[in-house]
Amino acid sequence: ECEHKATTKSNLATHTQTVHKGRKFQCQECDHQFSHKASLGTHQKSEHIGQKFQCPDCEYQSGYNSLIITHHKSVHLGVKFQCPTCEFQTSYKSSLVSHHNSVHMGQKFKCPEC
């Protein structure tokens, strides 16, 4: 029995599927396992085929174009989302919402399997 509490319903669903139902997507070329099929596909393209996205301003690379965009905004343009209640900063608006809901509002999603 685990005591897992997630900050979002989506994270709770991923936890339940991977930990309690054993649903994992295994890479056939290495030992990596993923909780999402799309993550497995990105891993295969990025690590085994060599398809990566490149930051136009530095050497940073990623298998996800969305991470290049976030990296560029955060690192090169200085865009951050600041919590109005504390010193927490993040590059992702969704992380700020999760932070606020879990830390300042006490919202947690308890695993129904535990």
Using the CA coordinates, give the radius of gyration.
17 Å
Tell me the number of strands.
8
Instruction: Give the integer mean of the pLDDT values.
Output: 89
* Shape descriptor: flat
* Beta strand %: 5-15%
Strand order of the largest sheet: 1-8
Q: Fraction of residues in helices?
A: 40-55%
Span between termini: 5 Å
Largest sheet: 2 strands, antiparallel
Characteristics:
alpha+beta, single chain, two-stranded antiparallel sheet, 114 residues, two-stranded antiparallel ribbon, flat
What does this entry look like structurally?
It is a single chain. With 114 residues, the protein is an alpha+beta fold. Helices cover 43% and strands 14% of the residues. It has helices spanning 9-20, 37-49, 65-76, 93-104, and strands at residues 5-6, 25-26, 33-34, 53-54, 61-62, 81-82, 89-90, 109-110. It has a two-stranded antiparallel ribbon. A two-stranded antiparallel ribbon has the order 2-3. β4 (53-54) and β5 (61-62) form a beta hairpin. The mean pLDDT is 89.
In short:
This protein has 114 residues and is of the alpha+beta class. The chain contains 4 helices and 8 strands, in the order βαββαββαββαβ.
Which SSEs are present, and which pair or pack?
Blueprint: E1 5-6, H1 9-20, E2 25-26, E3 33-34, H2 37-49, E4 53-54, E5 61-62, H3 65-76, E6 81-82, E7 89-90, H4 93-104, E8 109-110
Antiparallel strand pairs: 1-8, 2-3, 4-5, 6-7
